[in-house]
Design brief:
The protein has 445 residues and is mainly α. 72% of the residues lie in helices and 1% in strands. The protein has one domain (43-444): Up-down Bundle (Amino acid/polyamine transporter I), CATH 1.20.1740.10. The protein has helices at residues 30-36, 39-46, 50-63, 69-92, 96-103, 106-139, 143-160, 163-173, 179-183, 191-199, 207-220, 223-239, 253-285, 297-308, 310-342, 357-373, 380-406, 409-412, 419-444; strands spanning 10-11, 14-15. Strand 1 (10-11) and strand 2 form a beta hairpin. It is globular. Residues 1-13 have a biased composition (Basic residues). This is Divalent metal cation transporter. Residues 1-23 are annotated as: Disordered.
Length: 445
Amino acid sequence: MAQHKTIPRKHNGKTSGARASKAPRRPFSLGYFLGALGPGLITGASDDDPSGIGTYSQAGAQLGYGIGWTMLLTFPLMTSIQEISARVGRVTGHGIAGNVCRHYPPSLLMVVVGLLFIANTINIAADLSAMADATKLLIGGPAILYVVLFGVTSVGAQIFMDYKRYVAVLKWLTISLFAYVAALGFAKVSWTEALAGALVPHITWSTDYFTTIVAIFGTTISPYLFFWQASQEAEELRVDASKHPLIDRHYGARREFFRIRADTVTGMAFSNVIALSIIITAAASLHATGKTDIQTSAQAAEALRPIAGPFAEVIFALGIIGTGLLAIPVLGGATAYAIGEGRRWPVGLARKPKRAIAFYSVLALSGGFGIALNFTPIDPISALYWSAVINGVLAVPVMVLLMAMARRSDVMGRFVIGGWLYWLGWLSTAAMALSVMAMGAGYLL
């Protein structure tokens, strides 16, 4: 279909339109603001899933305010690697797996995607368990019923809901994370100590301390986030016929890169502010009273009741459910995109189910296995621990691959990534590698 250009009309020798008069300024609204954001916001918010909430709660309960500085450290690192992931998707029109299958050996792709499937499925199981425990805490009833309900609802929405409406729902679900900012109001926070803990690194040379550092890095910098954001940028090209991969059409690249950066910085900043709020709440309410044996997000919510009051418990529990509804689709979607792109199947949540049967089958399979794991004797806490181990180990080669692709002209064309963003991406990769080595050293000692 031919594209028609709007020809400005002239009145009295003056051009009408934007140059002659400014369009009325649209009043600010939260809906309009969220509409201007995209994959970066959803990616950042999904990083604070119920499993992540458990990690941050445990960190604050065990180590107090002094661990808050890790959020400032991880912010530029996770922002850089997520922006690079998004650029790869926008420039090439393919996600990470789609580019790996075109430029690297199939055996490498099989290992990466296989580990991603295992880690994401275990993570889905742990998140469903946490959501079910939080729901049981609020209204009672059998937890296993809630596992099935949340799992089926999440998978069903991805398969049968209109893509644009579904993305809008995910954006609105990010609001649930403000529950953890609200929870701060019920905690007796020593803001002087909290600020010092966030700004001044205070390192304790102990195994428990460095294990917590590794857990925080593994929670904030996770492979499924790379795959999801890159694939969502590629998905936007399939949804909007006016957009094309930048490697094919260079026009508007600067504007797109500015959008990606603003979107990613906003999403990652949002993620880290929420994580810091959880750490401070746990430090003020749990660590300060000697309650340091928190292992899950639901346990953190329950422990808040006698200390910070029933409202704090309710707010914390509701946040777990809301973030789980946001994170499970991202975990399952990242797996489906990775496998589908690697096999060169038709992929995309914007496609009708009958046009992407294999893609949606993987999505349903990942969710189904996540539900099924909750019916086994496997301890969800132990499963989550091993999921974090797999994620940590997987993150390093994926990040190395990503950085290599970002520098290849046969992948990125004229948009190869360089400068400070490139080196910050390598710094993020090195930090993750050091975390994994520290974790390995902990096993040997």
